[in-house]
Amino acid sequence: MASVKVKFRPSTVNGREGTLYYQVIHNRVVRQINTEYKLFVSEWDCHSETIVLHHLSTEQERNNYLLSIGSRITWDKDRLNKIIHALSQSGIFVTDDIVIHFHDNRQEQSFNAYISQQIARLKRLGKIRTSETYTAALRSFSSFMNDKEVLFDQLNADLFAEYEAYLKSRGNTPNTISFYMRILKAVYNRAVEAGLTEQRYPFKSVYTGVEKTMKRAISLNDLKRIKGLDLSLKPNLDYARDMFLFCFYTRGMSFIDMAYLRKKDLQNGILSYRRRKTGQQLFIKWEKCMQEILDKYPINETEYLLPIITKRNEDYRKQYANELHRVNHLLKKIGKNLNLLIPLTMYVGRHKWEYHKNSTINI
After folding, report:
1. Are strands 18-26 and 3-9 parallel, antiparallel or unpaired?
2. Closest of 101, 37, 34 to residue 72, by C-alpha
3. FRET partner for 323 with CA separation of 20 to 30 A, picked from 126, 151, 152, 309?
4. Is the model's pTM score more than 0.70?
């Protein structure tokens, strides 16, 4: 029966990290599989073939790195043992067969590649927003894994517990962490249904719920301060302020719904539109304050009403996304200058409208 050992190769330069490699032995034939895992001599116990952690609290970041390497060693050894078991079941094999199978990932789709496949599927179905959330989750997870491909066999509870700790260390809120986890879990479960992997419940130890967020409302006084700012010499900030106020005037309309308002949606003093999120149709009386904002800008050359999507020859969704990012950046500047207690962004929820429903137009 073949065996696998983990070996450490010290650096030839004093004080430099050495590298780990796997020694595969079968029928007295020895082969080596090199890795990119680098350690100092003091961080490896050659007798037990295990990582040695630092005791000082100041070395926590290094310990996290070492723990990550320890997990990957476990994954690699498990995979090598599965390869050995499969080869032994198929008949006679040599040591080189083990090494070749370990390096040959072409027939085994990675988790990363499967997520990318699902993103492409969502785009084909026209579910662009969902594909964007999947893309965000993939980028986050890939960053955690240092852009290395992860095989389905490597997915376990320990890995996602480490990923959760990684997200927390970067200041992500519980709901943001849950957002990524729920997407990855959905993709994993789909892979299980497709027969690409067995169900091992790798998300059982991480948070996938949704915490209630505190409702926030801008005071009427703050709204008056925002509206009263003299931004005549700062057209970019003036534009961001106008988009924020238009959102407020229209009872907390989302920025994407604002971007896709069409000129024909405004008829006989009534603005009508369907929410892109729910499909609900809404009707809003067109007020003088809304018209004043519209009159400040050149007539849009596209079919859209507001100066958000303005170029016919560029991707409309990309224009919307870029403008949302730009407006939010500018609004945060305005909020900072006014020392507002809450961040000023285009995400104005329905609760903000309810808070001011009797005084919206009279600020």
Report:
1. antiparallel
2. 37
3. 126
4. no
